[in-house]
Structures are given as structure tokens and as C-alpha cells.
Design a protein that fits this description.
Layout: H1 11-17, H2 32-35, H3 43-51, E1 57-60, H4 64-74, H5 81-88, E2 91-94, E3 99-102, H6 113-117, E4 131-137, E5 142-146, E6 157-160, E7 167-169, H7 174-183, H8 186-189, H9 198-203, E8 209-214, E9 229-234, H10 235-247
Antiparallel strand pairs: 1-2, 2-3, 3-4, 4-5, 5-6, 6-7, 8-9
Length: about 250
């Protein structure tokens, strides 16, 4: 089991994100003007975390039209860090691109958060899903906010790992997760899954690709990464294959 060391953010932030996942259309569709808060944006808080970041990060440029569309689909106010990241960024790459936080989509990470979730956490626009995919890594690991489908921790971030094929709660909300990606011990979390040339290999990927491993990471043979073959595959292919395989076990 990976250790997730939580670096707590302010109490009000934790409360704010505890149920941010899918208040989707509960009280009707809000307009863009209602969702954008120009005087009290969660982006300022994210920028404060970035100033003291211990992990490398790259804020990807946004397309304003695409950002507006993704925010409308998500129905999240920019007062929250999640809404702010969706509207202010095309996504954020952490640790050289090893971990990708979804925003509204950009050249390097050509997936908006709601665009990516359609067909995975929900099928029809406005539908309340049981989780929301928010980030992923080059191993084909997926981070999601639980809205009931992943376990008992409603509003908590869960991680689906390729070596266990199970969703596991990180026992934190979205804001604490973002804080951890910037200031937490990323290397410790992934310590047994990094090979010697990982940084160079990650640079060759775009945000729509992950590594596929053989033998698969959930097998005993894959415990020694020096004996595991890697190839680059589309993340959509990896996601569907992994979830179908996991559900059939």
C-alpha cells in the first residue's frame, strides 16, 4: 500500500470541498456569470500553494472558450479551487508530467475534465455520476472524487492503482489533494514504480498517453521493474481496458 502523507490546508477549504463533487444540476443549471467569481477566486489560494511548491509544476495555458464550456458543464464556482483550476488552466502537470491534474484542456493535455469524464463517470450531460475523475499519472493510475460509487468516503479523493486494481481512499478532499501534489512527497508515493530513466521517458509522452507494462503491474512478475517491458498507449484505451479487467476479476 502506498503512503499518502496529508499536508492539511485551511479548515474552511476542507469544508468547502467536502461535498463539491457533483452538486451537478441539483438546483438547476447556473449561468457562467453565476459561476465566475471575479473578486473571490480559489485561484489565488492555488497560486499561494505554488509559491511554496516542493514539486515541479507547469500550468498549461487555457483556451477561454473551452474553459467557459468546461466550467458550465461542471457547474462549479471559481470560488472553489476546483472551479478555479478548470477555468484558469488547461490543466497542471506535476513532477515533469508524471501526474496530470485536469483543467479545461490544452495542447499538452488535450482533455477537459468534463470531456474526459463523459462515458466514464456519466453518460449524458447533466447526469449525476458516482465519481468524478480529476487527475491521473503515467502509470495509468486514476484519481477521482467519490460521489458514492467508490466507497463510503463521500467527497474524498480515491486512487485507482495499476498494481492493486482497486479504488483506495486517500482520506482527503480535492483541495488537500492539490496541495499535496505541489508540496507533498510525490517520490515516496511512487517510490517502487520509478525506473532509472523515468524522467526522460515521461518527457516523450503527451497528456493523452500513459505507459502500459508487461508483465502487468498487478502480477508478481512485475515486482522487479527492471524485468518489465513498457510501451506507450492512449490513456482512453488504458482506462477502459483496466476498468473492464478489474470488474471481471
Amino acid at each position: 500500500m502506498r503512503r499518502f502523507i496529508l499536508l492539511s490546508t485551511a479548515d474552511e477549504v476542507v469544508r468547502e470541498v467536502s461535498m463539491v463533487c457533483f452538486e451537478y444540476k441539483r438546483q438547476g443549471m447556473k449561468s457562467l456569470n453565476e459561476l465566475i467569481n471575479p473578486t473571490d477566486s480559489g485561484w489565488g489560494l492555488v497560486e499561494e500553494w505554488m509559491k511554496g511548491a516542493s514539486n515541479s509544476y507547469e500550468v498549461l495555458p487555457r483556451n477561454p472558450k473551452r474553459a467557459d464550456e468546461e466550467l458550465l458543464r461542471a457547474q462549479m464556482t471559481t470560488k472553489s479551487p476546483m472551479g478555479a483550476i478548470i477555468h484558469q488552466t488547461g490543466g497542471i502537470l506535476i513532477d515533469g508530467g508524471w501526474l496530470r491534474i485536469l483543467g479545461s484542456g490544452s495542447t499538452k493535455l488535450n482533455r477537459g475534465i468534463m470531456e474526459w469524464n463523459k462515458g466514464k463517470s456519466f453518460d449524458k450531460e447533466g447526469e449525476k455520476g458516482g465519481f468524478l475523475l480529476i487527475a491521473d499519472d503515467v502509470l495509468g493510475g486514476y484519481f477521482a472524487i467519490n460521489a458514492g460509487a467508490l466507497g463510503e468516503g463521500i467527497g474524498q479523493v480515491y486512487y485507482f492503482a495499476q498494481d492493486t486494481l482497486q479504488w483506495e481512499s486517500l482520506e482527503c478532499g480535492y483541495s488537500d489533494f492539490i496541495y499535496w501534489t505541489l508540496k507533498g512527497d510525490i517520490r515516496q508515493f511512487y517510490e517502487t514504480f520509478r525506473w532509472k530513466e523515468w524522467a526522460e521517458d515521461v518527457q516523450k509522452l503527451d497528456g493523452n498517453q500513459v505507459f502500459s507494462f508487461y508483465p502487468f503491474l498487478w502480477t508478481e512478475e512485475a515486482r522487479d521493474l527492471r524485468k518489465v517491458d513498457r510501451k506507450v498507449v492512449p490513456i482512453d484505451e488504458n482506462y477502459h481496458f483496466t476498468m473492464e479487467f478489474a470488474s471481471g476479476r
